[in-house]
Amino acid sequence: NAGVMQNPRHLVRRRGQEARLRCSPMKGHSHVYWYRQLPEEGLKFMVYLQKENIIDESGMPKERFSAEFPKEGPSILRIQQVVRGDSAAYFCASSPVADLEQFFGPGTRLTVL
Amino acid sequence: QKEVEQDPGPLSVPEGAIVSLNCTYSNSAFQYFMWYRQYSRKGPELLMYTYSSGNKEDGRFTAQVDKSSKYISLFIRDSQPSDSATYLCAMKGGAAGNKLTFGGGTRVLVKP
């Protein structure tokens, strides 16, 4: 049973470009969470989604960031008009139901030039 | 004040020693407590998941939760160089819902 998959593993963007990060949860998991780890900082919650629904987006920056988890396909975290401060590791986690453990993917490391 | 406090270390121990890690938290509504291990440039790996106060043991790992003191611990017995990593505590529950709130992590170095 494959774990949480994220791609790309590394992404380089110039300021002003768009970044799209993809997350495929573990098989049988319908709950997806996105976290961000800034350099020398801890993991911070961004958004929690179930299929086709955003459950909690209290950690998402108000502008430029959006997330979706469509009925078919991976969850997408989208960052428009990236700035240098967006450079970080972005991790996706999934769980089978809300109250159980969250399992993390390997992360996408975004570098904004 | 951060919701979850964790000493950043580094914590250096000789191989075979017991590693003792802890976190304190301020939100009494937290109900679920986790420990993750993160190697450099990798994703967090779940080690322990506990719900209630008390002890939980899994192999070389023991997790303790004391809700009355808002204090959780992780003990690693017979430590190995491969245990060298950053250990993150995380918790959730109450009004925070299912989002995890993490401590800053403790860097552990096990010397051969």
Account of the 3D structure:
The complex is a heterodimer of chains A (113) and B (112). Chain A has 113 residues and is mainly β. Chain A contains no helices and 11 strands. In chain A, strands 2, 4, 5, 6, 9, 10 and 11 form a 7-stranded mixed beta sheet that branches. A 4-stranded antiparallel beta sheet of chain A has the order 1-3-8-7, with no helix packed on it. Chain B contains no helices and 11 strands. Chain B has strands spanning 4-5, 11-14, 19-25, 32-38, 45-50, 54-58, 61-66, 71-76, 85-92, 101-102, 106-111. The model of chain B has no long low-confidence stretch (mean pLDDT 94). In chain B, 0% of the residues lie in helices and 53% in strands. In chain B, strands 2, 4, 5, 9, 10 and 11 form a 6-stranded mixed beta sheet that branches. Chain A binds chain B through residues 4, 31, 33, 35, 41-45, 48, 55-56, 58-59, 89, 91, 93, 95, 98-99, 101-107, 109, and chain B through 32, 34, 36, 41-46, 49, 88, 90, 97-105.
